[in-house]
Design goal:
It is a single chain. The chain has one helix and ten strands. With 228 residues, the protein is mainly beta. It has a single domain, classed as Porin.
Length: 228
Amino acid sequence: MKHVLSALALACIASTARAQVGHLPEHSPYRDVEASQEFTFFGGHYRAGKDPIGIAPRDGPMYGLRYQIHVGGPAFLTARWSHVNSDRLAIDPTQTGTARQLGKHDVSINLYDVDLSLNLTGQKSFHHIIPVVNFGAGVASCGCSVESDPYTFGTPFAFTFGGGLRYVPGGRFQLTADWNNYLYQLKYPTAYYVIPTGGTAAVTGNQARSFWKNNRALTLGASLLFFR
């Protein structure tokens, strides 16, 4: 994927250079973006991937901070923290029937990742718009423990990828719209597979104890640009 994205970025840059031929600078749809760093506050919605028995953290509002620095050409290095206000359904696998259900509990997810972002129009905007793609990795964490439920979220490794648009009207501010995917592993505790007296196990069939799931986020943000 990395080679494909790099080739796409180089093609867009070449197209940008060709498109400027024949335009006077003041009439060109392309504008130089001179800021080398940016700091962004964003907010939006996190859509959690589904799990077979529904005990993992679910959808919720999301907000966070992102710092980005230019490292050369169309590439930027990005560090990001995201927080999700979520909830989960807890169970006690040693019980049966309605006694097994421990209800819904509020939980918080924190996502930390470092990404490589590519401006597909290089260090220029087209009609004040810059399309962007990004990919990277980090970790996820959650205070998801509930008494009598052996499930723990842990701190799984997470892959990230996505894209977005930057609106750069000029000056020190910009607006952003981003779609991102967080891919991390979910693990069920061994106790979920134990059959209690007079009942059935919380997890039945051939369900694996651990599996990867996609979790998507759509956010809007406002950025401060600095260090030209």
